Amino acid sequence: MGFEYFHKEVQITGKHSRYVDEMWEQNQIQNSFFKRLVDLYTIAPVIGLRARRRSVADYSDGKRTVPVTQMLELEKDLEIIMQTILLLDDTTTLSVEQKIDRAFIGPTTEEEFKANVNLFNDYLRGGIEVLYECLIERELTISDDYTDQRIGNMVAIFDNPLV
Amino acid sequence: MNFTQLKMKNFMRYKGTNVLNFSCDQEKKVTVVLGDNTSGKTTIAQAFRWALYGVLIETKYDLKNEISILNNEILGEMGPNDYREVVVEIEMEHEDKKYNLLRKANFSRKYPKYIAKQEYEKLTMRIKEKDSGVTTLFDNAGDDNGKNKGKVDDIINELLPINLSRYFLFDGERWNEDKNKRNDIKESVYTIMGVSPIRLMKLHLNELGTYGKNGVIKQLRRRITGSGDDYNNLNDSLQNLLSKIDDSEKKIVEASKNKLYYEQKIADSEDILNANKTIELDQQKVKSLEKDIENSEKYMKSYYADIVTSFSKSYIFFAAPLLEEVISLLKNVELDGKDIPDITNDTIAYIINNGICICGHKVIKDSYEYDTLMKLKQVIPPMAIGTLVGNYQKELKRWHSSSSEIYKVIKDKADLYQGEKFSNEDNENEIEKINKRIDGKINFQQERLKMQSNKKNKQIEEDKIRKEENNIEDYKRKAKQLEEEISRLQDKSAKNAQIERNILIAEKVYEASSRIYKKNETTILNELNNIINNNFKVMFNEKDKYARLEDNYDIKLYYNKINEDDTYSEMEAHGLSEGEKIAKNFVFIVSIMELANLKKSDSECIAQTLPLVLDGPFSKLSSVNIELISQVLPKTADQVILFMLDKDWEHSKLEKYTGAKYIVAKEKEQNYSKIEKIY
Question: What's the CA gap between A94 and B663, in Å, rounded?
């Protein structure tokens, strides 16, 4: 009540921003896996949750900022993702009911709000790492149907259970 | 020089031909022509003037433009178609030459009026060398070739300068003039001095106008303006830019040369590569394949973009399996229990605000009922949780169903992309094969490599050219600005240097000429004054008065006044009598003549000895003066020709100096005059 997710710009720093740079170049779709940065921002936490991968922020060189305007466009979908994370995250001792509460009633305190946001960002960063591994680091194999590494890896990630 | 003869034909009052032979005797050098007033003595002087200079002077009887030189009698005899001529002939001797000057004017008559119309005038001179007898004829209008035009005038001016004619050819009417115009005197002195050219130069350089303001030097000074430093700085900057432009242009030339070289090389390579006819088809095939590859690449780009666009939505796909997890999570949770049918947040708010429950029980703040309601408020969301979860699940399901769509699109595009890629690879292989075939035939590979390299180099040179061209544009723009600034200063500065030089030269010349002139002028004026003084003493009986030529060329008469303390004061004599005026002029004439004669021997001088032709009203002078003056005259010139009234002749006592004597008489009842020789 009163706490709104995705109304504040997000900064991706350190190694995660460097990973981002390798997967996305502004206005250079031929050099990117994602059209916009917000797309990566949306996909990565899902991947992170799928792969149960979280990562803390790294504050070394590099910074990428997701513009609020873009986030607001996908606000609804991002909320779904947030709720999913809040429901499925196992890192706390919360009961299911409590998870449901935090997912659907929403945070009642600032602390809760921050905790939820941090959780989301942890999965975001984890997801960035996974994506980086799957799209950039992965080498094509014989079982890949495609000879273009980018395309091959994009298709491959769809097939990857990620667990 | 001497006049030997004057011959007049139909000249003014002398009908027919009249001749005067002048005495050239060294002892008896005076020729006298006696006659009454109006008899025609003045006319003889006119005849001289007309013959020598083609001019007449005004007398008190005739205005210059009304004077007709054709004798009236002759005019009267003329019919409408008649022509008569007026001739004046003067013979002169000078050194070893004899000069015969002839001026002739032809007249018609504006019949029946007594008006003569001059048709033409001719001036000739015949010069005879006394020794050789060789005679040369000059026509003042020029000979057949147009040469020697004005030659006669030149000779006359050398022998008898017109500037001095007012003195050696002195007319009667001018005796009364009180003012020998300063400039006339000056001019005559200058002519005698023979430094007129220098004087003119001095004038021109620094003496024209008040304080010489119209002179060359001052004019030049007025033209100097502007400063040197600004000009120099701007000029330096300009030179800098110009040399930069130069450099750039040189670079362009260089690069153009290089570019040309590479183009040639490329063309050579192309020629070699194109040389063989049989590979032409292969070349075409290659071109076609290259085109295909180009197109493929376009498609591939397009497909890839589509893939990325879809991939950007892939959270839907990736979230789908999570839905199952959520479902299984929520399966065992009793969500409905939390719901009180149709009780919403607003309901609770309503109850609390009204302070009464639906069951009728009062709800007081901080009471048990109040706290329960508040807690309930917290757990009742705007919507029922079940609804929320339901919605959420619905959304996830939706995602799930679209996820395969995304996957499909990506796969399809990826396949297409791959297809193009394979196709390109095939084409490139094909091209390579064909090129190998071509290369193999005539070993083009090296050539191909060379051509690639030269294409690169050509591009580099083109880039250089473009860069320098841009630079030049920039420099030219700046240079134009500078040039405009400089031209405002430059005119002044370049001219300045020249002007300064010119001023220096002009000043030096002026200094030098001034020195020379001053020296000459002072000398001459002193001489002249001495002469004047002496002559005055001799020619006049005035012991108390004397004449002097002032520095400003005024001739003044002075007398000495005795002061009370027995000292003398110089006083200018005013209110001169007729006689005194005449005397004053006379003295001057004579003095000039004497000076001129003195200067004859000076090499600086161009003056000649001049004969003296005097038409003098000696009657105005006292007999004593006449005598005195007359005594001076023979000393003044080598030859004296005098016109006198009868009555003055006796007083002159010139008989002993007279070598020829004539009388001019007007024929009784006739309108013309005749000269008769006495001896």
Answer: 170
